[in-house]
């Protein structure tokens, strides 16, 4: 076919659907119904045919395929659980059969009829009546194949472009219904995490999203303005400091599954709005928390997926404990030959440059160590691994290591080279905390935009006394990516942040 003009055809289809809408209204057909009493679903009927054979059912869904044969029509409708064929006969439906000629792929209908098998053995619903529930004015992108003058097959209208699928998730879910399975699994993962924490005695709480000071992580915030108070507020970058205030107040264990916001770039593992689990447990330390994380992940995997062994990106991953534990400093010494605790700032800069990374300038020594770790070690952490005992400069809210000078009691969990959790023995010494905040403030003055602010109220809370506490943060989106084998964070967020449409 020469000079095929997809856009012209698309516009003509839009025009035709508007004309069909006008004709339906003229015939007294309500194009947008108020309700329909659905009592059966496609998957139930197909999986339990013996139970449904000959029985009357009411199904509803979107028309996804149409085959008109004069006095009979076959169509496939798609409901929330799958697809099923419907069969309509002119002799039985009378005038409403002619009305069906005004319907298109994409229209939503309700069908009342009995269940049977066609001559080809396909389980179907023989329509006794049907009702238009919603007229679709925009054609659904069902792939169209066209052969050009050279005999090449060209596919038009295939809804495969990733950017378009993220932007128009509603269309993505219609034409790629398997996408829904990822989000069902996401919901089950969050439900199971919540159940596990509840059963272990933690209390779910809510803390402010709008905060006068942001803290609990190293990140730039989003800023907004409160008109009545005439003050700037920040969308939270973490929940940590408010949850610790609750431990001060007497809670033994609290958690929050929340939306956090960081004003940063977007890539396969970063979205500016994301979901975090944070939890804090009094009288525990990071050693206890490692065991807790292992048990939580194992139970989660078994309850939601029925296994603790996965094939992710072609690699076999086993979440069964014990997970490997490696010291960050020792591993860096082993891989790079550099003792990062003794190395000078200039030596760390040189080490990064030798490996193709040009520091921007103004970073803290801790940031340089973190970058060196990322480019030399992180990608090699394939099986579940706890990287433990971080340099003090990297963790202004973690407790100093009880036996190793210059380190803090912190771990991060990695799988397939991706960080999935971060945890501390929490700093509960208010004098030390003030000193750390002041050091962070100096870093801010020297150009580190992500350094922590001084939070006087949080220090005041610590001065009343916080018991020894273990804290944990888990990136829910990254965990879901991992367990559902998705390549991008945007594949597990229903409506990810996108650049504005042109």
TrEMBL record:
<keyword id="KW-0648">Protein biosynthesis</keyword>
<keyword id="KW-0963">Cytoplasm</keyword>
<dbReference type="InterPro" id="IPR006195">
    <property type="entry name" value="aa-tRNA-synth_II"/>
</dbReference>
<keyword id="KW-0479">Metal-binding</keyword>
<dbReference type="GO" id="GO:0006430">
    <property type="term" value="P:lysyl-tRNA aminoacylation"/>
</dbReference>
<keyword id="KW-0067">ATP-binding</keyword>
<feature type="binding site">
    <location>
        <position position="412"/>
    </location>
    <ligand>
        <name>Mg(2+) 1</name>
    </ligand>
</feature>
<keyword id="KW-0460">Magnesium</keyword>
<dbReference type="InterPro" id="IPR004364">
    <property type="entry name" value="Aa-tRNA-synt_II"/>
</dbReference>
<keyword id="KW-0436">Ligase</keyword>
<dbReference type="InterPro" id="IPR018149">
    <property type="entry name" value="Lys-tRNA-synth_II_C"/>
</dbReference>
<comment type="similarity">
    <text>Belongs to the class-II aminoacyl-tRNA synthetase family.</text>
</comment>
<comment type="subunit">
    <text>Homodimer.</text>
</comment>
<feature type="binding site">
    <location>
        <position position="419"/>
    </location>
    <ligand>
        <name>Mg(2+) 2</name>
    </ligand>
</feature>
<dbReference type="InterPro" id="IPR045864">
    <property type="entry name" value="aa-tRNA-synth_II/BPL/LPL"/>
</dbReference>
<dbReference type="InterPro" id="IPR044136">
    <property type="entry name" value="Lys-tRNA-ligase_II_N"/>
</dbReference>
<dbReference type="GO" id="GO:0005829">
    <property type="term" value="C:cytosol"/>
</dbReference>
<dbReference type="GO" id="GO:0005524">
    <property type="term" value="F:ATP binding"/>
</dbReference>
<dbReference type="Pfam" id="PF01336">
    <property type="entry name" value="tRNA_anti-codon"/>
</dbReference>
<feature type="binding site">
    <location>
        <position position="419"/>
    </location>
    <ligand>
        <name>Mg(2+) 1</name>
    </ligand>
</feature>
<dbReference type="InterPro" id="IPR004365">
    <property type="entry name" value="NA-bd_OB_tRNA"/>
</dbReference>
<feature type="domain" description="Aminoacyl-transfer RNA synthetases class-II family profile">
    <location>
        <begin position="189"/>
        <end position="500"/>
    </location>
</feature>
<dbReference type="GO" id="GO:0004824">
    <property type="term" value="F:lysine-tRNA ligase activity"/>
</dbReference>
<keyword id="KW-0030">Aminoacyl-tRNA synthetase</keyword>
<dbReference type="InterPro" id="IPR012340">
    <property type="entry name" value="NA-bd_OB-fold"/>
</dbReference>
<dbReference type="GO" id="GO:0000287">
    <property type="term" value="F:magnesium ion binding"/>
</dbReference>
<protein>
    <recommendedName>
        <fullName>Lysine--tRNA ligase</fullName>
        <ecNumber>6.1.1.6</ecNumber>
    </recommendedName>
</protein>
<keyword id="KW-0547">Nucleotide-binding</keyword>
<dbReference type="InterPro" id="IPR002313">
    <property type="entry name" value="Lys-tRNA-ligase_II"/>
</dbReference>
<dbReference type="GO" id="GO:0000049">
    <property type="term" value="F:tRNA binding"/>
</dbReference>
<dbReference type="Pfam" id="PF00152">
    <property type="entry name" value="tRNA-synt_2"/>
</dbReference>
């Amino acid at each position: 076919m020469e000079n095929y003009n997809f856009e012209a055809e698309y516009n003509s289809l839009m025009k035709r659907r508007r004309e069909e809408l006008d004709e339906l209204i003229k015939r007294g057909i309500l194009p947008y119904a108020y309700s329909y009493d659905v009592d059966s679903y496609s998957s139930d009927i197909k999986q339990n045919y013996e139970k449904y054979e000959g029985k009357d059912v009411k199904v509803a869904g979107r028309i996804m395929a149409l085959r008109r044969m004069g006095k009979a029509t076959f169509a496939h409708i798609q409901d929330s659980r799958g697809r099923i064929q419907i069969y309509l006969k002119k002799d039985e439906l009378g005038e409403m059969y002619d009305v069906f000629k005004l319907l298109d792929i994409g229209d939503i209908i309700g069908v009342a009829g009995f269940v049977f098998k066609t001559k080809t053995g396909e389980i179907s619903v023989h329509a006794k009546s049907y009702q238009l529930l919603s007229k679709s004015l925009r054609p659904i992108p069902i792939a169209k194949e066209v052969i050009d003058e050279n005999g090449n097959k060209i596919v038009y209208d295939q809804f495969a472009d990733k950017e378009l699928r993220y932007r128009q998730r509603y269309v993505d879910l219609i034409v790629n219904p398997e996408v829904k399975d990822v989000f069902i699994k996401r919901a089950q993962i969050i439900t199971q995490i919540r159940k596990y924490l509840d059963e272990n005695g933690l209390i779910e709480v809510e803390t402010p999203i709008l905060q006068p000071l942001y803290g609990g992580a190293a990140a730039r915030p989003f800023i907004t303005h409160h008109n009545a108070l005439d003050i700037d507020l920040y969308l939270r970058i973490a929940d940590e400091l408010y949850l610790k205030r609750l431990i001060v107040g007497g809670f033994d264990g609290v958690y929050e599954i929340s939306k956090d916001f960081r004003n940063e770039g977007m890539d396969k593992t970063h979205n500016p709005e994301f979901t975090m689990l944070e939890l804090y447990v009094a009288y525990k330390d990071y050693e206890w928390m490692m065991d807790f994380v292992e048990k939580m992940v194992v139970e989660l995997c078994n309850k939601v997926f029925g296994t603790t062994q996965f094939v992710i990106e072609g690699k076999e991953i086993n979440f069964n404990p014990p997970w490997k534990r490696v010291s960050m400093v020792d591993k860096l010494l082993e891989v790079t030959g550099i003792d990062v605790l003794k190395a000078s700032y200039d030596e760390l800069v040189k080490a990064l440059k030798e490996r193709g990374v040009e520091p921007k300038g103004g970073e803290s020594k801790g940031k340089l160590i973190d970058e060196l770790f990322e480019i030399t070690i992180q990608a090699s952490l394939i099986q579940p691994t706890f990287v433990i005992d971080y340099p003090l400069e990297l963790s202004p809210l973690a407790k100093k290591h009880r036996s190793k000078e210059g380190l803090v009691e912190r771990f991060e969990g990695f799988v397939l080279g991706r960080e999935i959790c971060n945890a501390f023995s929490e700093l509960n010494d208010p004098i030390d905390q003030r000193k750390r905040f002041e050091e962070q403030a100096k870093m801010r003055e020297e150009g580190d935009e992500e350094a922590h602010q001084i939070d006087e109220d949080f220090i005041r809370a610590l001065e009343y006394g916080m018991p020894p506490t273990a804290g944990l943060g888990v990136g829910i989106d990254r965990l879901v990516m991992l367990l559902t084998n998705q390549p991008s964070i945007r594949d597990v967020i229903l409506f990810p942040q996108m650049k504005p449409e042109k």
